[in-house]
């Protein structure tokens, strides 16, 4: 996602090149298609100016109406435009009428199905030619994410005539077809799930990884390669690109890809957290800068291969079920989704006591939510008001 306010500002050329690098000829090239460029915005003119810049280098422009993060609230974009339907109409319609490529939009639901449907119909009337419905409200995030509502998404699909993509609840490969069946949608979109397993949309029959990743599709329909192999493949791609890749983005991707083992291999987790990759004058990582990432991923591969080889019998016997969610936990050398175990529901007495205790505490006494980061993994810095969110590449499958 790119911040349109900053992207259209001609005095911020470096920001443009960092977020959509046209000069190097890779982003938006024939090898980078199909491509939809997503912007967040709250000003139609700024959005149009930004979209015009990338128009010839993409297949569509998407407007993010779903970001629920605090930065979106402060910047007044994403899901926090949800109550200003007139502005949303103008944002979509100006692109629909002034661009040569289609405009699409991704949004979150309201608690009410009826209001969600009317919202989706307004987005369609404004000119969106594909809409993506994330079946969570803007309050459902972080520890309170919960499940996405397929009932809401189904109602949206039944109410509009343009293609609808569903978003939410996609952890394993089989969740894709389950989502399509439940919602009737034309496609499925996933973001976070792919950060932990970049092969999420591949079936078990799709494999170029070491032996042991393919199993009976009835047991594990999706493809779960060894995460160290994914990490090394990712680093290989980064090292060949002319386009700059942020060192913090590389580190973030590696922490997510190799997460199943980093809690065990704490020395590698600490090494990864300490990496300070240097960039050259052209903004690209030097060979030395990326080599330490490669060394860590290679060491992880060596350890994971050895630990997998030590397992007696089929490795599928190592699959266990997380008791609070019923979801599978795969062997720690394989790429797999990250999910939070459900907290046990408190008893009625505990609930009353907790409620009473809560009302007695002042706002200043409430402790902040603990960080989800562990070890020496760097917590994200609080972004400035106009700072963009980190890009997330999103794929879909046809329904």
TrEMBL record:
SUPFAM superfamilies: FMN-linked oxidoreductases. Residues 345-358 have a biased composition (Low complexity). It comes from the Eukaryota. Its cofactor is FMN. Residues 375-399 have a biased composition (Basic and acidic residues). Residues 26-281 form the DUS-like FMN-binding domain. Its EC number is 1.3.1.88. Keywords: Flavoprotein, FMN, mRNA processing, NAD, NADP, Oxidoreductase, tRNA processing. InterPro entries: Aldolase_TIM, DUS-like_FMN-bd, tRNA_hU_synthase_CS. Pfam families: Dus. Residues 344-399 are annotated as: Disordered. It catalyses: a 5,6-dihydrouridine in mRNA + NADP(+) = a uridine in mRNA + NADPH + H(+); 5,6-dihydrouridine(17) in tRNA + NADP(+) = uridine(17) in tRNA + NADPH + H(+); a 5,6-dihydrouridine in mRNA + NAD(+) = a uridine in mRNA + NADH + H(+); 5,6-dihydrouridine(16) in tRNA + NADP(+) = uridine(16) in tRNA + NADPH + H(+). Belongs to the Dus family. Dus1 subfamily. This is tRNA-dihydrouridine(16/17) synthase [NAD(P)(+)].
